[in-house]
Design brief:
Length: 485
């Protein structure tokens, strides 16, 4: 599991560790890891010896890390030059080490000695706020002008992004890879900042024992998901596997019902009960579905409900929503169902509620602009979870799952742009609903659902465009992948 901690927590852990190790040891550990990562990148397209490396050096510890790493690369035969944004405030020890190893300090962008094979971003660190300053932007543009293919490695965090929130205010470095130290930072895992980070490499500097529980953010990996998957045993029946009810679709959007049911069936439900106007379309595609004219409370036993995809906003939809929300089983609310919610109704439910908005729906629930949600995804998902006292799965380029309780926010690592297709969210709703019905806790059901959904898209797309039905059809293969590790 990838775990991420806030800047405040990281700094407290570093301070505690520095009391137990020799002075400068943490920076040397970080520099060693950074130099190794840079060496790996250089060897992919050539070799370290004779390569040209340019360091962009700010005044903080990240600049020191870059300088010490540059010294190590220079001792291996690389031609290393440093551009100092604040020459009088550069890390003295790091600068001395670079010069002693044969590195040089450039007088400006025109003195970098030819096109570099690698650029190391050590401009700002995890404490940076508000994007890059104008002088840093001008320097970056001058260095990378007409050199779009020059790889950039960020030190700890791409300069200009917000470490704690993943927000990007103004200009920021776009790195091909980020080498981070001790632990991940939330901004490395959450868009829009994550889009600036490139491939991530974590360097162990001994910080682990100093980091508290729980982390601020976590991302499940294969083994974590495999441990949560509900796998039937020899004595299982449809009820022990989970029966999920689906209230979705309308005369205008019958396909939403079909896709939600597809996600539920592919997600391992023992049975699916469908209530809504799309019964004919559902039965035509999935004859095993148990259909009912309604109301939902009369449809038969279920262990979780999925409410909302394509439901519309007529009287029938309102009555069905009220009926489902009154049930004493977990309820997942998506799409049109979100517009029918009253916060007090959700807060006072005795069973769990999972909300699955995209950015536009989250903005409507919070009463803010969509752009505000997209720019501050972590703050938005936390606020929604607290306001509704629910588990919230915020869909998007990085899907986030938050609870009202003080548990780490989870970020899904399997998302892909191919999921931005009509009906994909309906499949996710059915899939997650089936996991709720199987007995997974709401946070686990949402996290595993998002993880499988992303993997399913990769199977369904085969690297190209896909439909929502392709996503549903890819779920069994995603399930097998996870179990196989």
């Amino acid at each position: 599991m990838r775990r991420a901690y806030s800047v405040e927590t990281v700094r407290a852990a570093e301070a505690a560790l520095m009391k137990r190790v020799p002075e400068g040891a943490l920076m040397q550990r970080a520099a060693a890891g950074l130099a190794a990562a840079c060496g790996d990148l250089l060897r992919r397209t050539g070799r370290v010896y004779g390569s040209r490396v340019l360091l962009l050096v700010g005044s903080g510890d990240n600049g020191g890390d870059a300088l010490y790493a540059g010294a190590r690369l220079a001792r291996r035969g690389a031609g290393v030059r440093a551009l100092l944004l604040s020459p009088d405030r550069a890390h003295a020890g790091g600068l001395a080490a670079l010069l002693a190893a044969g590195g040089q300090v450039a007088d400006g962008p025109d003195d970098i000695g030819g096109a570099p094979d690698l650029v190391v971003d050590g401009i700002t660190g995890i404490g940076g706020r508000g994007g890059l300053r104008d002088d840093a932007v001008a320097l970056l543009r001058a260095v990378l002008r007409d050199r779009d293919r020059t790889p950039v490695v960020a030190v700890d965090l791409p300069s200009g992004v917000e470490a704690d929130s993943g927000e990007v205010h103004g200009e920021a470095v776009h790195a091909d890879a980020t080498v981070t130290f001790g632990t991940y930072k939330p901004g490395l895992l959450i868009d829009p900042a994550a889009e600036h980070a490139g491939a991530l490499r974590l360097v162990d500097i001994g910080l682990g024992p100093e980091l508290p529980e729980p982390p601020d953010l976590e991302a499940l990996q294969y083994a974590d998901v495999a441990a949560l998957l509900p796998v039937p045993g020899a004595g299982s029946d449809k009820y022990s596997r989970g029966v999920v009810g689906v209230v979705a679709g309308s005369e205008r959007y019958p396909g939403a019902a079909v896709l939600a049911v597809a996600g539920a069936l592919r997600g391992g439900a023992g049975a699916v009960r469908y209530v809504g106007p799309g019964a004919d379309a559902v039965i035509a595609r999935f004859p095993e579905t148990l259909v009912h004219a309604g109301p939902p409370s009369k449809a038969g036993r279920v262990q979780a409900w999925v409410l909302g995809p394509g439901l519309g906003d007529g009287r029938w939809a309102e009555e069905a929503a009220a009926d489902v929300l009154a049930a004493d089983v977990p309820v997942l609310v998506d799409a049109d169902g979100l517009r029918l919610l009253e916060p007090d109704t959700v807060r006072t439910r005795t069973a769990a509620t999972v909300l699955t908005p995209h950015a536009g729906e989250a903005a409507a629930l919070l009463g803010v602009a969509r752009e505000e949600v997209e720019a501050g995804r972590l703050a938005a998902v936390r606020e929604l979870a607290a306001r509704y006292r629910a588990t919230v799965l915020l869909k998007g380029s990085t899907t986030l799952v938050a609870e009202a309780r003080d548990t780490p926010v989870r970020v899904n690592p399997t998302g892909t742009g191919w999921l931005a297709t009509a009906g994909s969210g309906d499949v996710l709703s059915g899939l997650t609903g089936s996991l709720l019905a199987a007995g997974l806790a709401p946070r686990d059901a949402a996290s595993v659902g998002a993880y499988l959904h992303g993997l399913a898209a990769r199977h369904g797309s085969d690297g190209g465009p896909l439909s929502a039905q392709d996503v549903a059809d890819g779920i069994p293969a995603a399930w097998r992948d996870v179990r196989a590790g």
